[in-house]
UniProtKB/TrEMBL annotation:
ATP-dependent carboxylate-amine ligase which exhibits weak glutamate--cysteine ligase activity. It comes from Mariprofundus aestuarium. It comes from the Bacteria. This is Putative glutamate--cysteine ligase 2. GO terms for biological process: modified amino acid biosynthetic process. Belongs to the glutamate--cysteine ligase type 2 family. YbdK subfamily. SUPFAM superfamilies: Glutamine synthetase/guanido kinase (SSF55931). Keywords: ATP-binding, Ligase, Nucleotide-binding. One of its GO terms (molecular function) is ATP binding.
Amino acid sequence: MRYTECMQDTVENIPFNSSRLGTLGVEMEWMCVDADSGEQVPAAPHVFSALGITPRIKPELFTSIVETNTDIQNKTPDAMSQLADLYIQVASVLKDHNAALLSSGTHPVSHWRDQVISDDERYHKLLKRLQWVARRFNICGIHVHVGMPDGDSCIRAMNNLLPIMPVFLAISANSPFWHGEKTGLAASRIKVFEGLSQGGMPFYFADWKDFEYCTAKLTTTGSIESVRDIWWEMRPHPDFGTLEVRVGDMPARFSDSAAYIAYVRAEAMAAAMDIERPKVHPSLIRENRWRACRYGIHATIIDPFNEQLSPVLEWLEKRLDQLAAQGIAGSELELVSGQICHWRAHGGGAESQRKLFDASNDFSAMIRSMRNLDGWSKLRR
């Protein structure tokens, strides 16, 4: 029985602003670090003083984090081009203040207690309500918005993507350290993220009305103020007319980011077009999510389609063939397949961080090497 079958009251409609299927928007959360020590520094105000706060360059909870956002794009290379331009703008300002941008899901050593809260009423209200949970939220991710034509299509896509979501986490995993500690996890960020009151995995919904009912109950009970306060790792964004995938760590490299965005877009489009896929029990999805969190690209997952064990990169290679058969553009899928070769040869972001630290046993040297190898720092005007 769905929630709406037992409703006794009238639920306010949540308008879903229609978007063309497959249109794309990307948000990236960047850490500001000292160019020498690699420690997080509250340098974001310098960026906003020079460039202003715009829809493309925005503040985050802490003054040591800057968010860059694309406008609406039609394919991954166009989104990457705009993200590169935004990176160059922000990095150019920070360079004058001996600071730089770091792409990582967590800062390897800097502590959340040392971060300065941004002067924004929403963030202060968030901290008042969530307390220690929000104060620890010194983490960075990549959010990919994929256009959906209507609310029911968005819910169908979210339902169909639930079993795939752990793969998104596995290929982006880039947070093996927390406050200087080797966590043993490939993606420790997700363990902080899931502590939010509306964090963690989303749920299966019957349709858009079902989602409206859930949101209404959360609102009327004072659990959230608006849909924006639902922080699931994947959620509908009715204002933008998108499905927003939020599970991924900030990827380690420019090429990792391109592969991640292209893969999320491809899966979201296929998920919206598939009328119905068999539901996978949430316990299996949760297990795969844990395996991705623990092992990243080296995870062995439970295949959501046949429940057989499979190394995640082998599974992903076969999955790309299936997506191609569904009509997903080859130019997008090639961004993913090419990066699989790199991951096999060199490892993912988490493995790269561990190798760099083991080579120097020094976090400052490790962070400088991360920046030199990320592909973003080579970009020039």
